[in-house]
User: Fold these one by one.
Assistant:
Number 1:
Amino acid sequence: MKNSVVSLQGVHKYYGELEPRLHVLKGIDLNVAEGEFVSIAGTSGSGKSTLLNLLGCLDDTSKGTYLLNGKDVSTLSDDQLSQIRNEDIGFIFQSFNLIPQLTVFENVQVPLLYGARSISDCGDLCMQVIDSVGLIPRLEHRPSQLSGGECQRVAIARALINDPALLLADEPTGNLDTSTGDEVLALIEDLHRQGRSVVMITHDPDVASRAERRLLLTDGVIVDAEAA
Amino acid sequence: MISTKHLELVRLGLRSLLGYPMRTVLTMLGVVFGVGSVIAMLALGAGAERELLREIGRLGIQNIIINSVKPEESTDSSSRANWINSYGITFKDHRRIVATVPGIKRALPVHVSKRTVWSGSKRVEGTLYAVMPEHLEMFQLNTSVGRNLSHLDDEKLARVCVIRSGLLKELSIFEDPVGLPLNIGNETFHVVGVLEDDAFLGYARKALSVDAKSSEIYVPYNSILKRHGTRSITRRSGSQEATDVELNQVVVSVEDLDQVLITARVIDSLLDRSHPEKDYELVVPLEVLAQRQKTQKVFNLALVAIASISLLVGGIGIANIMLATVTERTKEIGVRRALGARRHHIMAQFLTETTTISTIGGTVGVLVGIGLVQVLTLFTGWTSVITLFSVLLSLSISMAVGIISGIYPARRAAGLDPITALRHE
């Protein structure tokens, strides 16, 4: 059996200290094996964003354990979580979240600024990932000079720069038209075929169906979409 | 390895600043003017200090100047049995000082009298200084034309004089003045030299009791003393007054600089015994200089403190803009946090930006300050000195302003919750 990249066991998340607490995630068990492409669909209010924040190590669990790539991340400090986000997670956001004043090259380079590696050794690496998303001609452009699809490809390149254990995509096609969205999804599928582990969160059943395994988040619990 | 990363952070910080050029420039202006005025104030302060040193230093810091002072006129007319008004330092005092006060290099006597000077039909009032030749040397009274007074002149009781060029103008003399006869009082003196245009200024003039209104005429000491004695008669409308001051001034040079103040005290107590009416005063340039410098330092400090207020305002300006920037860039902060930036990275980013603003502003401010000083010097004639110290001080203060004004905004940025920041639109 392959190693688990993500392993959630009995994870609860609630907000507020006093009863009645807002109980968002109600006992989630989730395993994502290495190289797997999993989609988690759910209507708004189902707890998708909360789950995404947990998976992305932006937030901690109220109860239960979260093992990312074998490491228990539920008890880490702020700095340690930052390091995990930097090294083990590649974020792809709905609204791309590129830094407007930086060029394509510099945007892709940002995670390197916060990691342990020297950036001067990584010029080739940056070029390589930018090449892999086909944006070499756009190297010196600013996000405002790019189309939505190009922006998302820059974001994907940025997510890949530190060779993360997990790619975490949050509605990656939400701000794109259907055909551009398809291109981006095709790129993600490519990455999956190259052995990347991907968790994609979306409300769109069509997008969700591109994944290898589809899950459904309903009212704070996860069910298998195929079974549902 | 770390340094390239830091350089990159600085470069990207600059990039952010260049993203809003107008705002950055306006924010910088506060620091520019703050540093500019600090530089200007320091330069003017240092200039005033140098001027002071030049003015008082010219008196010679190893010297003690003893001036005869006319005592307050006694209203009791019976005490003025003699119609000759006699006061001041006497030859005896001079001899006693030379003989008894230790550590004295020399004590030069000076006799001053007001005389009418004629040249042809032109007439001016002049002040005659009967001095030893060393006197001119000591106070750097150098001739630009002709020669200075010599010992030979003194021994031969020669009727020669060294004059200020101002006197020539007053007497409308335009030909070569050397050898020119001047009728001073009832005698004819020949001009042997004209002094450089380097008049005594401010305090030095007062200390040497040089009259600003009339030109100085220097003659050999003995030529006057041996020929005329010390009495002078001043005619006023209807009455006349005779004064007899043996010596108007004695300039004592002390061998050892450390002994100047003690020697001054010794001389004072010596003179005090024979002059109960206090008809003399002691001027100790060293002491005056120290006092003036102390006052000037306090004044300089006050000037700089006032100038620093504008620097403070500049700092507040940076903090204000940075706070706005933090709000505006909340999303970017969230993104950076998601990509692995730790709190201290965010701190560093904003501090880099504020420090960059203030340091560039400070550098421009130094140039503005130097320019301001040049303009002020040009239009007011004040002396100014721009020291390396003042430049380095201003630059370090401006850097410190950047860091201090950046701390609060940077802490706020670093304290943002990544999830909230990411969701911020």
Number 2:
Amino acid sequence: MSGVRLPFHPRLAEHALVRRHVIDGEEHVVLHDTRTGDLVRMGTREWAQLAAADGTRDLAGLTLAAAKSGALRRASELVVILERLQTMGLLADGIDRADAAPTPSDRPLFALPDFSLTCDASGACCGVYGSILFTRHEAARARVALPLVRDGGDHEERVFTPEQGTDASGSLAVALVDNCCAYLGGDGRCGIHAAAGEAAKPAACRIYPATFVDDGETIRVSLGVECACALDSVGVAGGAPLVADTARTGADLPAGARVIALPALLEIAASVTAPRAAYVAWSRLLAAQPSPADPVAALWSLAAAVDASGLDEAATLAALASPVLPDVNAVLPWIRALSERADSRVASASTWRSARDRSLTASREIAAAAASLRDPVALATAIATASPDPAGEAFYLRAVIHGHQLVGRLPLATALRDRAVRLLVARAMGALAPALRRPLTVLEAMLRGHGIEVYAREVRS
Amino acid sequence: MIRLVLAPSVTVDDLDDVAFGLGLVMMNILPAGDAHPAQTIYRTPDRQALVHVINDPRAAALLVIVQGPDAAEAAARFRARTVVAAQELVNA
């Protein structure tokens, strides 16, 4: 006996994401801890044992379920797996989980003005993320349309794992082949689209890269600037709108659209909160101002203003009117934290990801750029150098602010500094690899999609 | 019904290995109750015998009870793969 006390009815916690990867032809199951960025690799048989741990079975029931699936050899193996996960804080007990509050369907939509997306259909975004989500219905449709993909027609579990934990009643994450969606065709086109039409594609793919945030007044429709096409579309008319032109309220959003509700109180600085309405007013004030000449200076100055004066209008406008470039010593700890997180990501991913995996090369690009800025002289030069893509960075700021992407995860002041650091690192990525297309979008996709964004909580002055 | 008393050195893991090797199909796990000790119940692949692995902490060793039309054969196959201290024929 190891002394580890297991939950009575174990299940994988929501922050544990299990993903099935096919790496250079070999199948692996990888469990990602979204709180720490750690990962656990296991065999498909171990996962088959664990998959039954959905919070409804005690150890005997789990053992029986594993035996029923043909995955059990020794009951003690299952105990060892559970104990390891329990030690890592990845197990929960029972089936209780919070339900998201429904968004009022009559809430008006407020889409990012003057933007439409022209997708290049290269399939690049189908190979970057760690999770590509399907509803159960969409998964079933894909398995019918393309039953031979990973033999998924007969075996759902070979193509899909639960989005979170072991709760298979929610959305499902598709297996990734060298980090590309299992249904991505060799020509870079969506296999589901080719086999069954665009409407058969998962809603998340059709909606991408749109984001929806309910701020209590409207549902802000914006986008994650995570795809080169997003920046390529700036100032280009004739693309697809983020939501249909006829959509007016939440009820008109496509099925599968996930609306994130801003909480009533938002953390804006360390131990300082503000009502949601005050933040929305601040965001509206910001959006009404002309694009700053230097987004890095503007973001850093806004952060200082929020630290000093909260969401005060005069302080906000003063920060925007006279933005000050950040001091190297103030930025250095941020660069160091991002560099360490990216290095750790590269070290971990190199042990199991394929050389063909785009997320691995992107991690390396980010790590190299961050490392290049760890030198104070290089960082000072980078801070003082004008943006190589002012229009792209201005659009990025506009999308982030309109989409309320600065709040919820980090205190607002921290998030503003985080975004300034991202711009600096993206510029360095472009300088190191001039052929890299829209480095800011690569960085954004990796930070959110692969959890590198946790670096902002690891900044030590 | 045949009762096998296993050698004290035989562990639950050893028995799991034997069950896996024989292709036994796990059917149920019963916690200890007033009427019986904790046990894991298997069947043979051809459904001709039930195998109860009894883990009673009061006993010095694991017990296996085999019953069904092919109990004798199933017990023999079990014996061939583990160390049995004693075998008894028990009236049901």
